[in-house]
Structures are given as C-alpha cells and as structure tokens.
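Posting this for the archive.
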Amino acid sequence: MVTREADVAEIWEWLAEIPDPEIPAISILDLGIVRDVAWSDEGAVRALRVAVTPTYSGCPAIAAIERDIVRTLHEHGIEHVRLAVQLAPAWTTDWMTAAGREKLRRYGISPPRPRALAPTGTIDLLDVAPAANANQHCHPELVEGRDQEQAACPRCGSIAVEEVSRFGSTPCKALYRCTACREPFDHFKAH
C-alpha cells in the first residue's frame, strides 16, 4: 500500500460514498456523523484523523461505520488512519443534510423535522419536500406550532398519522401508520 497525503476535500468526497449500514439510502455524511477530517503527525508517521460522532452512545452500527471508513481510505491509498469517537457535542438530527432528509423520504422513511429554524421562523421547503402526490394535504412544515416530532407520511405527504410503536426497525426510528393512505412507515426520531 502506498501512503499518500490526499487533499482533505477529496477525502470528504470518498466518505460521502459510504452508506449508513442501517439505512443504505443515505451516506454517513448525509447523516452528519463525520465531524472532522484532518492530517496529523503521529510520531514518525503522518496519519489521517477522522472524528466520528455516533447517533447515540450505544449505536450498534458505529463499529461497521468505522470499519467502512478505514476500508475506504485504505482502498484510496491512505495507510495510516486514526479514528476518534467524539461524543461531545452529542449528535443531533439537525446535523443531517437536506439531501439526506430527502433521500430518507424517497426511501420511505419520514425524516425528522429540523429544529433550527431560519431567523424568519420558516423552514426551507427544500429541506423536507412533500411527496409528489401530496397536493391534497398541507405541507407538514407549514403547520403553525407543529410538534417537532410529528411525522408526515413519506408516501402521500399526509400529517394524519398515528404512532404504532415508539421503536421501529432500529432504535433511532419509530413505527407510524398513515390514516390517509393506511400505509405503515418508519419515522426517524428527532434528537
């Protein structure tokens, strides 16, 4: 293996190709868990340091994510990789990208609503787009005082939904059912 000091911007591009092991429709960058990438001197060698913040401290996917990061970087010729688990500040769903939220919705998972509102008190409508056939339903982000945890059906866009179970297919998701189209779906819980 030939070690080379790749440009950090190039490394971010490589990391953007790594899917989340629990939700392969989004990358680990879409999820917002990679916090920093930087070259550092590790004694006699130059190493790439990658800081990762798990979605929660007991996340079972973190070992797979770390393994995928190291494998990807080794495949691109980076021999010395140092992973750092950064627990503070704690991960929040606000770190998810707008593209990641849209990928979740298209995959059939209701994305969490961003907690950080723009100074005008509005949310960018591109951040959580309604389903294509949602014209008969109000857009979930436009409901005054709407609970941040309120889910919207990723299939029809309706906010007429009910929680079936607080825990869905993974601990970070809850199981909901749409009362408009009757379809069940996962909702990624806001943290």
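Residues 18 and 81 are 16 Å apart (CA to CA). The radius of gyration is 19 Å.
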